[in-house]
Write the structure tokens for this entry.
Amino acid sequence: MHGTTDVTSFIVVAFSTTNNPTDPWNVYKIPGKPTNDLIWSDYPIVAHNSEDLFFTVNLIGNGASWEEGFTEAVIWQIRKEDGYKGDTLHKNVYTGIKYQNQSLRSICTIQNGPLPTGTDNYFITVRPLDEQNDSVFMLRVNNTQKSGSASLEMTVLKTETPYGFPPSALQPDTAYKLRTNDARALSGIRTGNTIQFLQNCMNFKTMQAHISHHFVYDIQGKPFIRGGLITDDSLDMGYPAIAAAGSNPKDESSIITFVYSSPWHYPGTGMIYRNRYGEYSKIKKVKLGESLIYYSYIPKGEQRWGDYEGIQAKFNEPGVFYLVGSYGINNNMSAWVTRVKINDSIYNDPVAEVKVFPVPAKNDLFVELQIINEGNYSIQLYNTLGQKIKDKPSVNLQGGTHLLRIDPNQLAPGTYIIHVTAPDGKIIHKQKISVL
């Protein structure tokens, strides 16, 4: 991003010419006023698939703040092969993106993970300035730029729990508050048929600034949203960024970074890991703050922090990620880059629709389920004569990967058959197992 007026505004985009980043790059200036002459482009968010680069920007009127000067958000779609070759860029620009005649603000591009595959791309936006809302707008560019037939689609969804405009974060000197700006969708990933996205959000129970982590399941069928807040009793949190942490598109593991602060903590950078079973790790503070953030030319209650956090997989070293965050030092905000590695015993295990392990079983028997259609699922054990000898009560499962435990104790050693039954009564998995 360059400039904050119509005269100075443009976006810089660079394409590598080889797989060696020290070789020359092809660099382009993308116009910052694609719709009229009295605007500039703010807050670019980038994603790409196998063929195209996408980025979104907010268009702001000259001489106005980003809140009051907003005119519309637009999506750029650029053919990647042009940039790699150094040719003139073929592009689509999607403008006039509205719902009920109201322009959608702060559209978040969704990263494709764990690798940038596919020929379409998704986007998420919300009502970021509302005190409380449950509307989510899922957008999709449905084809490549080269196809000549790409168009923009919209699906309107509702969250289970409302999101809302977050309060400012506190610091050890509570007169100096850190702005969280709004509740926009800040970062998101697509893995298979699921989207995850994160927002700054109000915790309506504690009135703290926390992070909302939502999942849109079955995006290519009948999409629906689940999810909720990532919270902490003592920390205010903001500006999350997410990366896909699974080894394949069926694995919805993710790794998240964010900034934090509180009356007992100087502003620093943290992270959290969510495994494929929906279990969150403890918060890891990767950089402790060393001072307040206090700029004398900004009002005490409106100090700036965070805003451009990021996290990225190191593709040639599985389980390794680099994140960029920020922290307070000498009363200023400073950037911090961290290398992190996932320590998870199941990280490299493949994901199947249904998986039963260990076989043979002795102490515990586990059933891993990939769920698209939520509902009540049940598990039964039969002996080889077809007699039911163990029935695990049905459990309501939402979309995603789940791990169910069966206690094989009090079973005689021998061979059994396990049945997994879906909400409609159909057996979706049948497998012979051994108990020692």
About this structure: The mean pLDDT is 91. The longest strand covers residues 152-163.
